[in-house]
Amino acid sequence: MRRLACLVLLLAAGCGVRATELRTVTVCQLYDQRQSPPAGEVRFQARALMGPRHGAIFMDPHCPPGTAIPFRFADHLPPGSQAMKFDHALTGDVMDLSLRSFDAEVAGTYAAASAINPRGLFTVVRVAWFHKSPPKSP
């Protein structure tokens, strides 16, 4: 039965049909659902900030002040992928402690809020696009 399911998924991918569609959400929605986040991968557009004061967070100017989602990149990003390029753009020179700001569309998974991560934690798996933006403090 499992082999049949794999064959169906493989055939669907070969025909250009996605087995599971990514759900598009907003930073506001994820933040509001941080106690019980959506299952599976989601995608959204947001501003990514990285710096010594904020760590790495996604925010959206359409959300209430203080609404931010901490994030990290998946452990094994494909070399040369947009996600790998975005990770390098955000981390930059380790001696440069200035705030880095980019607008991006990302996809990944969101782990529920916990005592360690009260805002939850988003893991970036894929990046559709990104570009440098002017810094805006949360």
What would you note in describing this structure?
The protein has 138 residues and is α/β, with parallel strands linked by helices. The chain has one domain: OB fold (Dihydrolipoamide Acetyltransferase, E2P), CATH 2.40.50. The chain is built from three helices and six strands; from the N terminus they run αβαβββαββ. It has helices at residues 2-14, 27-32, 82-91; strands at 23-24, 42-51, 55-59, 69-73, 100-111, 121-132. Strands 2-3-4-6-5 form a five-stranded mixed barrel. The longest helix is centred in the first third of the chain and has 13 residues, at 2-14. It is globular, with a radius of gyration of 16 Å. Residues 1-19 have low confidence and may be disordered.
CATH topology: OB fold (Dihydrolipoamide Acetyltransferase, E2P)
The helix count comes to 3
Strand order of the largest sheet: 2-3-4-6-5
Spatial shape: globular
What do the pLDDT scores average to?
83
Oligomer: single chain
Largest β sheet strand count, sense and barrel closure: 5 strands, mixed, barrel
What structural category characterises the helix and strand content?
alpha/beta
Helix content percent band? 10-25%
Whole-number count of domains: 1
- Low-confidence regions: 1-19
